[in-house]
Amino acid sequence: MNVETLLRKNIKTIRAYSSARDEYKDASADMVFLDANESPFKSNVNRYPDPQQTRVKERLAEIKGVSTSQILLGNGSDEVLDLLFRAFCEPNIDNVITLPPTYGMYSVLAELNSVELIKIPLNADFEPNVDDILKSQNKSSKLLFICSPNNPTANSFDADKIEKLIKAFNGIVVIDEAYIDFSRGESWLSRLDEFPNLIITQTLSKAYGLAGIRLGICFASEFIISVLNKIKPPYNINQLTQDKALERLRNLDEVRNEIKLLLLERENLEEALAAISYIKEIYKSDANFLLVKVDDADQRYRQLIQKGIVVRNRTKEPLCENCLRLTIGTPSENRNLVNALTEIE
Ligand SMILES: *Cc1c(COP(=O)(O)O)cnc(C)c1O
């Protein structure tokens, strides 16, 4: 597959804005910097941040086993996803495919970018309908969004099905791995080099505990990353975010311990919920949340609010009738949840 032919026409020839920090890179050098109209009065943020986030990428490359040239960082995964639309989808001509019920941003971004959305629902086991997906694609199908582990169904998709899709889809396959750190399954990162049309997104918002700093990660071939680099806003990752991310990425033990605790809590919560009579089903989870089917989701949602607990009501999503999505909290938060659920029985 030649990925270059999938790009939008204007993107093929576009030239990146060249910022001051692109033209003279070594901001740590002992030089007098009078090139960017910054304030000279020192604070930790009076200078523009590194537009290539070199130090954060170096640490990520080390942790994830990829090269820094295979990484692009965004202001949350949401910015990364938006860049993909802008790189590959010609408005009012191209289309993208999603597999509902899934993460809501794919359809929001399709609409925002005037790109047709083809929805191929998951089957009753919350797995992709591979044949239907491949039958629905046409020569204008540019992106296929596979969220695995999937939000809100919590499961990882069958690896053979995903592989089939990567091989047979004639556009870019985007695997959203926002919840990969909570999964029994392996990341597709180890196979990135095999597939030129594969893009993997991850984020520091969930397992890394940094939703507030907005840092999304895109892994792809050097070619795709070079294209995205040309169209991203030059200083899209601010200095405070880069500093905080680096600090956290240097403390992986802390991250791993938190993940371990959440996985243990997920197991405990599953067990406790099984004893509640109006909970009809607890779906298998590879994420930091549980999807549960109850007798009446609207009523249970309201009752929980009255007890001071906010969960996500997903009853309007396809295949999720009467389903609530429960994020795994701290041990005491989870105890509160179980107590409240028991009291309204
Ligand atoms: C939470 C979530 C994200 C994270 O998005 P950010 O913009 O990085 O915070 C991405 N994808 C899915 C499926 C999610 O549930």
From TrEMBL:
EC number(s) per entry: 2.6.1.9
Catalytic activity entry: L-histidinol phosphate + 2-oxoglutarate = 3-(imidazol-4-yl)-2-oxopropyl phosphate + L-glutamate
Any one GO molecular function term: pyridoxal phosphate binding
Domain Aminotransferase class I/classII large: 42-341
PTM sites of type N6-(pyridoxal phosphate)lysine: 206
Pathway it works in: Lipid metabolism; Amino-acid biosynthesis; L-histidine biosynthesis; L-histidine from 5-phospho-alpha-D-ribose 1-diphosphate: step 7/9
GO biological process, one term: L-histidine biosynthetic process
Keywords, comma-separated and alphabetical: Amino-acid biosynthesis, Aminotransferase, Histidine biosynthesis, Pyridoxal phosphate, Transferase
Protein family (similarity comment): Belongs to the class-II pyridoxal-phosphate-dependent aminotransferase family. Histidinol-phosphate aminotransferase subfamily.
Protein name: Histidinol-phosphate aminotransferase
